[in-house]
Amino acid sequence: MSGVAHSYMSDYIRSLIDEEKGILKELQEFAERENVPIVQKEVGNFLRFIVTTQRPKKILELGTAIGYSSILMNLASNGKSEITTIERDEKMISIAKKNISNHGLDKKIKLIEGECLEVLEKIEDKYDMVFMDAGKGHYNHFLPHCLRLLNQDGIIVADNVLFRGMVASDKLIKRRKITIVKRMRNYLELVSKDKNLITSVIPMGDGIAVTTRRGTNE
Ligand SMILES: C[S@@+](CC[C@H](N)C(=O)[O-])C[C@H]1O[C@@H](n2cnc3c(N)ncnc32)[C@H](O)[C@@H]1O
Fold first, then answer.
1. Neighbouring-strand partners of residue 200
2. How close is the Cα of 216 to the center of ligand 1, in Å?
3. What would the pLDDT profile of 32-88 be if each residue is shown by its tens digit?
4. What domains lie within the chain, and their CATH numbers?
5. CB atoms < 10 A from the CB of 127, how many?
6. Residue 39 assigned as binding residue
């Protein structure tokens, strides 16, 4: 299993998704060669689906890596979504900047260098979508900022929330991952128990949680 679903299931689901072309294919190959973690194929397809249906004008991403998911979301929006993405790793920052500018996307994808929490504390803009894909052990700390920055109808997509199944089953927990697992469980409780929010946890890839605000009549 490369995620939380059985391999036969994820292999089948992936077989239904078209192969990427052009820049996204190149970036996938680079990520594979250089061992850079980027969204799994079905998660990339899910982001594409969300961007196509929700049409977010402004997206905030935590965790740029080489810029793959930022570029994917911008392309999925036909270039209409503006993305702000945060990354702390200098090597990743330099590769992502090159990828973004080589494809003429500097005006659409803004990379902010730094620790997510420190950057989030300073941001004042509002976003229609937040994609959390950095610092698995800190989603619970990022959440209050993400909610503050999220427009009323906005949506938060958090990746890796089941963390190789460890979040769902104590039997799978590796001892050195206990803190991450506890904090991720705390994140899932916060977004699931808050009466103002509605969250759907999907066992896709490494687990995704999609959160939005409830309607006022509920
Ligand atoms: C899974 S990768 C992001 C992949 C990217 N979203 C994609 O799918 O193309 C996570 C990235 O977040 C960065 N990161 C991890 N913790 C961070 C933090 N606290 N602040 C900023 N960046 C962080 C890592 O350096 C890494 O490049």
1. 210
2. 34
3. 999 999 999 999 999 999 999 999 999 999 999 999 999 999 999 999 999 999 999
4. 7-213 (3.40.50.150)
5. 23
6. yes
